[in-house]
């Protein structure tokens, strides 16, 4: 396991011994805390739940945040049953005070978080002429304000540790998608946010990257199927026809990408957007 090769206090910079000679430690460019703690927002289901399970399997303790803490419990129990550490925290990522309190609770109960996955999301799809101001604002708030508040609340712990990983969930819709003026603007906005965090926090050993999924089978895409009047089966089958690898995605496909960005060895990859869509187009 590569992670076991990274000890607390490993601190390799510049051209020291082992640099460029295949040493594992040489891949790590900042201190890695001994016990790694991650916060995953929107972790009760779908992509967030898969990310929480995957990072727990990678050895991280997980604070699962969602609107309703009880909805996170099945995932928390699964992680604990597998020998991991996890807690469920009820939190609305849009609320500044709630976000600060949620991060404080994770810090008290699991330790200082040095990994943050901004995954919480909603859709309020309508063609422009039918889109209400509430549809616009709520999507901006959850994706952009939520990612901003969470990142601001956690970054101090990362800077103190000299190590951090922020992963934001963007979307192929950032490239434009009918009926999603609000969502595509928010997901494109998250890409700019990601690149700016990478610029500001890189010197502290913190990377920021985005995963932009294509069609992933979750309750979010089930909601879209309902809106367009198709069964989920027909909807996914039609979507798969346009995807080069011939299938729609699953939450674990995205969890795998997040696991890479979060890994200590990915410290030289920052400010990137990974389109995980079964083909070259998001
Ligand atoms: N499913 C896809 O095809 C797809 C594609 C591209 C991007 N994404 C993005 O991936 C992320 C996860 O999507 P999913 O398909 O798993 O969605 P999902 O609807 O299944 O799950 C989203 C979770 O976020 C939580 N959430 C919503 N608002 C919240 C808030 N204010 N505070 C805290 N939690 C909140 C929900 O309760 C839910 O548990 C989202 O950001 C989404 O936009 C999904």
UniProtKB/TrEMBL annotation:
Keywords: NADP, Oxidoreductase
Domain Ketoreductase: start-end pairs: 36-214
SMART domains cross-referenced by the UniProt entry: PKS_KR (SM00822)
Record organism: Nocardioides albidus
Gene3D superfamilies with a match to the protein in the record: NAD(P)-binding Rossmann-like Domain (3.40.50.720)
InterPro entries to which the protein is assigned, alphabetical: KR_dom, NAD(P)-bd_dom_sf, Sc_DH/Rdtase_CS, SDR, SDR_fam
PROSITE patterns for the chain: ADH_SHORT
Name recorded for this polypeptide: SDR family oxidoreductase
Annotated GO MF terms: oxidoreductase activity
């Amino acid at each position: 396991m590569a992670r076991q090769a990274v000890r607390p206090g490993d601190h390799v910079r510049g051209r020291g011994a082992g640099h460029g000679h295949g040493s594992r430690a040489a891949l790590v460019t900042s201190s890695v805390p001994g016990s790694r703690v991650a916060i995953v927002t929107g972790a009760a289901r779908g992509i967030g739940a898969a990310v929480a399970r995957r990072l727990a399997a990678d050895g991280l303790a997980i604070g699962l945040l969602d609107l309703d803490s009880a909805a996170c419990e099945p995932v928390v129990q699964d992680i604990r049953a597998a020998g991991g550490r996890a807690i469920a925290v009820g939190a609305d990522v849009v609320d500044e005070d709630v976000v600060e309190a949620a991060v404080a609770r994770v810090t008290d109960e699991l330790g200082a978080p040095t990994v943050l996955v901004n995954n919480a999301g909603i859709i309020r799809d309508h063609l422009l002429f039918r889109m209400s101001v509430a549809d616009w604002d709520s999507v901006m708030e959850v994706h952009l304000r939520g990612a901003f508040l969470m990142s601001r609340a956690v970054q101090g712990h990362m800077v103190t540790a000299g190590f951090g990983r922020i992963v934001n969930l963007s979307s192929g819709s950032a490239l434009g998608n009918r009926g999603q003026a609000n969502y595509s603007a928010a997901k494109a906005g998250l890409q700019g946010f990601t690149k700016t965090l990478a610029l500001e926090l890189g010197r502290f050993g913190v990377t920021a990257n985005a995963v932009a999924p294509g069609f992933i089978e979750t309750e979010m895409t089930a909601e879209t199927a309902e809106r367009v009047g198709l069964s989920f089966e027909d909807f996914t089958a039609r979507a798969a026809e346009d995807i080069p690898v011939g299938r729609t995605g699953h939450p674990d496909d995205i969890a795998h990408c997040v696991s890479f960005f979060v890994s200590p060895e990915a410290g030289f990859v920052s400010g990137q957007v990974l389109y995980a869509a079964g083909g070259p187009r998001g």
